[in-house]
Structure formats: C-alpha cells, structure tokens
Amino acid sequence: MGKDSKAMKQKGQLLSFVPTGEYYFTKGVKAFHRRDLKKAEKYFQRAMHLEPGEPMIVCQLAIVQSELGEYQQSNRLLHLVLEELDENMAECHYFLANNYAHLGLFRDAFRHANLYMELNEDGEFAEDASDLLELLTMEAEEMDEDYYEEDDLIVKQEEARNHLESGEFPKAIEIFQEVIEEYPEYWSAYNNLALAYFYLGETTKARDILNDVLEQNPGNLHALCNALVFAHYEGQEKEGQDLKDALEKIHPIHVEHQFKLGATFALVGEYELAYRWLKKLQKTGFEGDGAFYYWLSHASYFTGRENTARNAWKKVLEFSPEKEGMEPWADKPGVKFETQVSAILNQLNSDYTEERLFALFLTSVSAKKKEILAAETSTDKMTEMEKSYLAYVTSGKLSSSKEEEVKGAHETAKLLYDHHQPIGKNEAGVYIMWFSVFEQAAQAGYDFKNKKAWAAAVDYLWDKLRNIKTSKAAVAKKYGLSVSTLSKYISLANEFLQEEDSI
Fold this sequence. Notes:
elongated
C-alpha cells in the first residue's frame, strides 16, 4: 500500500486513563503528540510494566508500535487485549485491520475491518474502517498477483490439511511438498508433512523433517507438539512426559498456537489440559473450524462435560456432515473405519490406487456393505483390476482375467485383518502399506500365491517403521512361516516400497 493510503492515517485519538502507572502513561501521551514515537514507546512500555493487566495501556503501546512500523509486535499486543484483557475493545479490530493491510495480509485485514464494522457500526473509526475496506479492494485489484499468491497458499494449505484429516496421506504429502517448494520458509507445511509421513508409517522420514524444523527454527511450537504426538503413538513414555511437561508451561499469545496446543493435548489423551485451552479460545469468540469443534467435543466429553461436547459436535457436523457416527461417545471398540460409510465412499473416489483398494476391502468387511454398494459411486478412476475387485466384493464371485490379482490383494488383506481389527487410524496404515506393495508387485508381474508371506512381510515392515520392537522369528511364527521365507518377502516388499518412494 502507498504512503498516501488511508491505512497510513493516524490511528485514532488517545484515550483517557487514570491508573497507578499514570505518570509514565501521561509522559507517553505527550511524547506521542509531539511525534517523538520512540520516546512514547519507551514510556508506554514502562507503564505497561507497572500495570500489566490494563488494556488501555497495551492498546496505546500497540498504536505507537504500529506508527513505528512494528506491525507484528503491535498485532501481538492487540490480540492480547482482545483475547485476554478486554474482548469489548472493538477498536483493536480496526487497528489490526490497518496492521494486516501493511503486512500484505489482505484476508486478515478484511476480516478485522468487517469485525469492527459489525461490532461498532457507528463507532469513532467507522468511516475510516469503511474507507479502508474500499481501499483494500482497490489495492487488491492492483496487486492481483501477490493477493492471489497469498490466496493460493491458503487454499493449498487448507486442501492438504483436509486430506490429512481424512486419512488421504499420499495426497496430503503431494500438496505439502508443492507448498514447501514454493514457500521454503513456511514451517507449517513442514510440520504437517511430517505428520502425514508419520501416519503413513514413515516415522524416520517424519522425525527427520521435525528435527530439521527445530534446528532451523528452535522452539517451533508446532514441531514440539508433533514430537509429543509421535512419542505418544510410539509408546516413548519418557520422551512424551518430558515434552508434555515442557508444553504445559507454555502460554502462547497467538490464537493459532493456543489451538495447536489444545488439539495436541486432546490427541494424546490429556483432555483436561486440552479443554483448558480450547474452551478459553471459545470464550474469547474464536471462530473455529470443524477441527476445533472436533477436539473441543472430545476434550469436553472425556472430562465429563457432556453438554458442551454435544453442542460442539453439532458444529462439527455443520462443517463435516460425513463425520456423523464418529462422535467421541461412539468411539468404542467395534466402531471404526469399517462402519464409516461416508469415509469409505470418499476413499473409493480417491486419486490414489492404494486408497481405493483399501476402501474396497473395507467395504467387503463392513457390516454396512449393502448401504455402501447401493450408493452411487463413480468408477471412472478405477483400473480394470479394481473394477474386478468391486465386482467380487459385490457378488462374491471371481470371473475375470484379473482373478488371481484380486484374490491376492483381498486374501492377503484378510490375513492382515486377522491381526489388525477393528480398523482405526493406527491400523489403517498397515493396509495402505499392503495395497501400495501390491500395486507395485502386480505391475512388476509378481504372483500372490504365498499370501501368508506377503501379509507377514508387510506386518513386519509396518512394525519396523513405527519403531515397534519385533523380530522376524516372532512374525514368522505368527503367520506359520519359516524365517527364510519371511526374509525373502520382506526384501521384496521393501524393494517395492522404495520404488514407490522414488516415483
């Protein structure tokens, strides 16, 4: 934005205030009026030190910092006022809008300018806020490229996050990698990429990414939270406790960080800590998305706050109707992916072969098989083999040239199902891994006569990827094989997984 823009106008009148820090506050006001901004900042900082809970001082300091071009520091203070000191100071939204405009974050600028108009239509800055909205529109039109670049990042991040939350990990990885290539210092993408790899079972790769983030950006809250999630799933109790203790002491100002902390605590089962952060956000008027209400519902339910949990779940269904049936009170043994009709139908339309194959297998073992098969499902993305598999799931008969492949895919998955059911988030990975191996092996012309060996090999590799202690002898015994046979198939499966990584 240009220097003559309305966003550069002096940001309002200084407001009256009579606290014990009055001396420094008054000197700050005088310095501000004679445009000695550095001195004004110094005096307001001193007043804030003496009166840390007084929103008026914090707001005035934010105004001065904005005048000095310290927009991010100013925003931290303005969010502090709205989120912790006085949520009714609507003028903070107007100041935030100006700051975000200067930072080029037009979406946030629009949001806060509109919030100010909604809360204080006839307020002192209403005309200026209206002008700012008009100006933002004009600036955005002149700066199409930058504006849409920002939009593009937001859209991609949101799309990838949706894939991550839906368990479509390969697709999420693909988009996060694109984002990182375009925005190499966008740490959020690295952290989410690590999560996607972790849920896919590639734990070493996931940890390497996290370590890299923490090396280049020490103290990155998202990376620390993800490290706690990894430790939780891998059963690393000591590491998990240390990380939990450290995160419990952190009191972030940023809304995004508060949400991350709350969601992480909920995910690892620390529901009381989770509820504290998520409920705090809700009380400050945080307009959360489906994920926010999902974790709030879980944290509330598992801390005995059932009404809050049920109200939050209503919001979840407004964002994501397909999550019906996945309520925290329905999360008991036997109620897993096999019963999630909407989730299975979505997976059947995935862009990835291994996910469509997994969905076909889920259909075959689902108690809601008839309901799934009765739904209108496109087969446009399916290969001939997948269509044969669908026909087999529907009729129970094998009658195509792909008969041996379909039997290999399905019966090997059934052997895994003997040991990994019901299928929840943790179990899904072993099936995705199997169908990934199967796809590569089928393309290479391998047969699937020794289904026990294929299942045992994938079972072994799945444990190894999650750093779960196991031995070839134990897995061979589990599937009634010799160690030498298992070793042969482990090498084959590993080879196909490596090939898949290189594609």
